[in-house]
Design a protein that fits this description.
Elements (H helix, E strand, L loop, with lengths): L1 H17 L14 H17 L6 H45 L1 H14 L3 H30 L24
């Protein structure tokens, strides 16, 4: 398990940090892409250093470990960042909507004011993100095995059994 821990920490660390940096975390809109890439990175690093061929089970375990590390980082760093950056992000969103349609910008502003800065909602959203990061990192780990593992899984199968007469029983 120790040979899986270092790749999982690297993949999960990158996954977690990139998932909480404002604007960079927008890439997660695309099927939690940072999570998939974090799981893939962990599996790639493991396959590269492993003396034996990696299996789908290895990919799933590495993705799960990387996802767990990324989820913890996302919770620990993401909640304070979201609370601190919330007003700025809301203002930027409102400005973008105002450029598109002034009438909708006013409705959007009223909705943002009604929502306010609710710490409970921030924590709930962070927990949902953590679960999604974990799930998609497992998918990334599973996807990485067939992409990066090019070694054969084991020895070739033995030749077919031939009886003492030297005939295999098959017609030639």
């Amino acid at each position: 398990m120790n040979n899986k821990l270092k790749p999982a920490l690297i993949g999960g660390g990158i996954l977690g940090v990139l998932s909480v940096i404002p604007f960079v975390n927008a890439v997660n809109i695309c099927c939690c892409l940072w999570a998939v890439l974090g799981g893939m990175l962990a599996t790639y690093l493991y396959i590269k250093s492993s003396p034996t061929p990696g299996t789908a089970a290895d990919g799933a375990v590495l993705g799960a470990l990387a996802g767990a590390v990324g989820a913890v980082i996302s919770l620990v760093l993401g909640i304070p960042i979201d609370i601190a950056m919330g007003p700025t992000m809301r203002r930027l969103l409102l400005d973008m909507v105002a450029r598109l349609d002034a009438r909708q910008a006013e409705m959007f502003r009223q909705q943002l004011e009604a929502a306010g800065t609710n710490i409970g909602a921030v924590i709930f959203n962070a927990l949902i993100l953590a679960v999604l990061l974990f799930f998609f990192a497992v998918i990334g780990g599973l996807l990485a095995v067939p992409i990066f593992e090019k070694r054969k899984a084991g020895p070739p199968p033995p030749p077919p059994f031939t009886p003492a007469g030297g005939q295999s029983g098959y017609a030639a």
